[in-house]
Amino acid sequence: MTGNTMENLLEVRNLSTFFDTRKGVLKAVNDVSFDLKKGEILGLVGESGSGKSVTALSIMGLIDPPGYIAEGSAKFAGCELIGMPEEEKRLLRGKRIAMIFQDPMMSLNPVLRIDTHMVESITAHRKTDRKEAVKKAVEVFRKVGIPSPEKRLKDYPHQFSGGMRQRVAIAISLLHNPELIIADEPTTALDVTIQEQILYEIERLSRENNVSLIWVTHDIAVIAGLAHKLCVMYAGKIVERGTTDEVLDNPAHPYTKGLIHSLPEMNTRGKPLQQIPGMSYSPIDLPPGCAFKERCPLADISCEQNPGVTKISENHHVCCFHPLM
Amino acid sequence: MKPDSDTFLEISHISKEFRKPFGVFERIFSKFDSGIREEVIHAVNDVSFALYSGEVIGLAGESGCGKSTLGRIIAGINKPTSGRILYKGKDVSQMNRSEFRNYSLNVQMIFQDPYASLNPRMQVREIVAEAPRKFKIWPGGEEGNERLSQTLLMSGLDPGYADRYPHQFSGGQRQRIGIARGLAVSPECLVCDETVASLDVSIQAQIINLFMELKRDLNLTYLFISHDLSVIEAICDRVLIMYLGSIVESSKSDQLFTSPLHPYTQMLLNAVPRLNRRKSQYSPIKGETPSPIDPPSGCAFHPRCPQCMDICEREAPPLKDTQEDRFVACHLFD
Does A273 sit within 8 Å of B205, measured CB to CB? Predict the structure, then answer.
């Protein structure tokens, strides 16, 4: 572990985010708890609809009606984020907690030049003149490896390629030396070679600046080398959490195991791939008990109850009645 | 690569250019010899290969390398600028209407985005049965409905869903509808363009298994286009690696994944994240894919190549046979 202090930077406890829909209450995030230490990288893994993005947005305080945080707490460096007044949240967001989104074309304004974006985010948190702000912008551009930064700052978002645009988004998130960066599928739209470049930059920045990182992804292989610990989400719940090596080498939840074994690389060519049968429930009216039971090879009558947390080892926990050992 | 009896398709020297039409001002200025040149995108550049019956060929490369364009040309959706396609020994451009129809029905394409490729206003029954009814492959009435049920079952869909609309299905099921539509005309070959890219890992495995079952049961030939090398490794017999419109390496799957020859293939394989090879040290890769409007001189890969030599900047290497059935376009193997 890289943490300098053993103190938790972020403590999420029993977080639940629901959406009121015409068909009923959609429980996108359901009783989620985890910790993050300083300098640590957490991988939040799950398939589409598992609630991983909503967890990230809830921490950022970006849930709009009909969504609401039903209960739980998220403490960032001792401050409670849930229920914090909007003005105070605004002082945190972008300054101490930054977010990187999946599609930087959507998160950058297409009619503003990049330097306008940068100067705007700097002056939002710091009293400074434009000249100083541009200097800072050039500095972070250099940090994320964008060539000829002075020239590129004058460009519009569409003049950047996908990988470069994602670097711009990362650069903007670094403007105020945040303590926590939440990245929501930042490399999903990119080619593997560009993804490798971004992973390289992120790993370096996190190590050098001791920044904590939450990396939300559906691809367990991307995060395998980067994250110190993993949380696997299924139907709004964290079903397994632990250090990356423990979770990947000895998955305890049947879903985690199924997810790992359905990766093409885990199978021999010519043989059918191992697959998880069926598909996940709609998060509206989830049945009682374990949400995975219909697809689980080990399910029995006890799975009609809600599984509690079973401790596998000091840093490895699973929500299952039949943990694999 | 000589055509023989079981060559299904032979692609020889296919190129495709896209031209950006001139605007009003450019048209006026071009009259005065002002040096305005038309922008030409060389999407596919002199590509040749053969597809044998019952084979699964993988086509891999970064975005913008022309793999989808090549797939669309093979499926008969786009016409190549130059070069020819031989379908069972017959030149496609010389075919008459009924021969061409036969060809394009036999080579079906399955698209990437299961949301954009299905008409939201059509029921599953209409989507799947449209082509076979139009071309009188299926009989009408009760017997036609029977064929529809069979096709849906084959694709792993409940025939009871035939009256539903696409929005009532999940991503994986929609992809199955797309597959059923392709299978409805009893094709011999499927061109799958990033068919599993947008699916979750567990659903992706289900669809790949479906493809492999169909290959076994119907003796299908596949051209499988994907940027995901781990998917290609799992299912393909032979792999073509494309870079900026050209094939840079072509070989059997086992050989390519155990000992890649071209520096680009090596770089690509190295960048694939894997659970078995967890790394905490990532290497920065030089540069990005250059633009196909203004490709670099010589070997298109030379600005990013770690083993670039003088000759690479001047001459483009041809695709040549290095060892048995391994083709590579690189000056290192001269």
Answer: yes
CA-based nearest distance A313→chain B, Å: 22
Mean pLDDT in each 10-residue stretch from start to end of chain A (325 residues)?
62 93 88 92 89 91 89 90 88 89 82 90 87 89 82 88 84 89 86 83 86 91 89 92 92 91 80 81 78 87 88 91 86
Strand stretches in chain B, DSSP E: 7-19, 40-52, 56-60, 82-87, 90-91, 107-110, 189-193, 221-225, 238-243, 246-252, 320-323, 326-328
In terms of average pLDDT, the best of B1-5, B232-236, B320-324 is: B232-236
| A185 domain-assigned | no
Test B201 with A220 for CB contact under 8 angstroms.
Answer: yes
What value of ipTM does the predicted structure carry? 0.81
CA distance linking residue B121 with residue B108, whole number of Å: 22
- A43, part of any domain: yes
Least CB-CB distance to B288: which of A194, A263, A279?
A194
Give every strand in the sheet of B246-252, ordered side by side: B107-110, B189-193, B221-225, B56-60, B238-243, B246-252, B326-328, B320-323
The shortest C-alpha distance from A301 to chain B (Å) reads 25
Structural domain total, chain A: 1
Domain CATH number, residue A288: 3.40.50.300
Please tell me which of the candidates A48, A201, A275 has its beta carbon nearest to residue B209: A275
Judge whether A324 lies within some domain: no
Residue A63 belongs to a domain: yes
